[in-house]
Fold these 2 entries.
Entry 1:
Amino acid sequence: MKKNIGLLMVVLLIAAMIGTYVKQQIDKEREIESASLGKEVEERTVGLNKGDIPPDFTLTNLDGEEVTLSELRGKKVVLNFWATWCPPCKAEMPHMQNYYDQYAKEDNVEILAVNLTSAERDVTADAKIDTVMTFRDGFELTFPILLDPENAAGSEYQVITIPTTYFIDSTGTIQQAIEGPMNLEMLKNTVNALD
């Protein structure tokens, strides 16, 4: 009888251990499912650090169309801040165009080049826009160039050094920021690391 009670206790302990283990595995699966679905936007922090949702904005491109960052969710976004007078910006533009031509569609990427229009050295707003258009045409750029005439986005993103580029994954989360110019290989490698 004592043997049976002892055996019963051992069986109950084993059953309790198995139950605990199974519960832990179910909890882990739920965590993985939640992570793969992504947190709701409201639960994530809006900021400029890795894992944050980038501040949203709506700016106008050179064709007069409005572009809203959050509407690009589902695509990877290379968000680049630049100015026409900036030598490192000039150096990286051909690399960005080469990436855009060769890989952007296949990689599900949109490049948004935000011109810090308020920082352009021309006197009038129209002259600044003309300078940006001349720059675009001179470099034969086909990716979207957005104008930031009030420095709203530049200020929100705390852009001090240009170029500054944020890499945003398809869930709308910042994964990396780079200050300074990029070449084609660096751009490709950084985008490939997003998802």
Note: Residues 61 and 164 are 19 Å apart (CA to CA).
Entry 2:
Amino acid sequence: MPDGSKRLFAAAGFASEARSKYRFLPSAALPPDLPEGPVPIADMANAFGVTHRTLHFYEEKGLISANRIGLMRVYGQDEVMRMAVITVCRETGMPIAVIQELMDELRKADSQERAEAMFREALQVRRRELTAEMSTLHRQLQQVGDLLDYDGSIETQPLNDNQDSSSLTPQEKRCLELMAEGYSTQRIARALDLKHDETRDLEAAIILKFRANNRFQAIAKAILLGIVQA
């Protein structure tokens, strides 16, 4: 890269860092192989598994900000760190408004320990919300089962012409557990060391075995069958 371009990239990175109002952010895993210095929007989107439009949306909401080098939008390393935190929050299903509130609170963190504590508090709140949602879903599924007048309880119904969880391979069982924990397809791929397409096919096979229409229905059935824990 010519020296002039390097200076432009460095200047963009410093500008972004100077504009940052975050002294401390909670620890969050960064995508591998991100370039050093300012990150072009295409690399940012690919690294976090989102679209350019999603990044623009986050900018509109004040969650991240971008610089420009010519016509190219780039993000400083501080924006990458923020995006890592935002991605974790989104993967747990936190609404954008809640993430905005959390990021605003993190601006006030006066130490790394305080930032980590704020993040844990937000995650604990989300866990309670998810637990409540699963309890509601559990009751609704039981009501539907009663209305349909199944023979026997829903817990004794086969997954898909199979009588128990032994129809799941060890890899499918682990994938299902991660799905139940709220992992996205991208995070499951990393955890299982699989390609994205392989993970997507694995999830599809699990959904099919549970005679479900989507991953959420499959998780709900697995919890009712006692295959995974809520």
Note: The radius of gyration is 22 Å.
